[in-house]
Write the structure tokens for this entry.
Amino acid sequence: MIIHHLEETNSILNKFIAEIRDISIQKDAMRFRRNIERIGEILGYELSKNLNYSSEKTTTPLGVKESFQLLNKIVLGSILRAGLPLHQGLLNYFDDAENAFISAYRNHPNNDTEFEIVVEYFAAPSIDNKTLILADPMLATGQSLVSVFEAIKKYGSPKELHIACVIASAEGIEFIKNHFPENTHLWIAAIDNELNEKGYIVPGLGDAGDLAFGAKL
């Protein structure tokens, strides 16, 4: 797996990451969503540097100029519901992309710390021979991403695979390395070292879905 850790280079991204972590700023759900969206835009911009382009002529009111246009046929796939603001940020830049949405959640059958990932809903175009970008804001244990990837395989084999995340745990990254193709690109804004006993990232930011859309039952 090819890892692109954006926080290693200081940029305006650091401000957005700090704000989504800040418990006082988190109270503003609209700002939280917008910051996730802006992080998605930055991830999309950086990711775009690794895609394929062709030379085309663009006609202006005063002449003709050579430009380079994106060749990749992109499918944006996001895990509901927390992935929606991140998806929108990516879609702001890849506005011609097709879209896929996946429902995946942790099921605690014994009401303890043990859980399984349940994938119940998946709506997607064919991904065969296309560039698939999987968007999930929090890469904690990595089990959700692996379960989603297994479910997606029935829709074809992507030509290129990219994963876009806001915050990941070091443990989660190590886990998905063993379940995704070696040439998979992981685009990550920030990496935290710890998971707690419930499988949540520490220091992380809490539950991204609840912060964006309100607490669930």
User: Anything to note?
Assistant: Residues 108 and 115 are 4 Å apart (CA to CA).
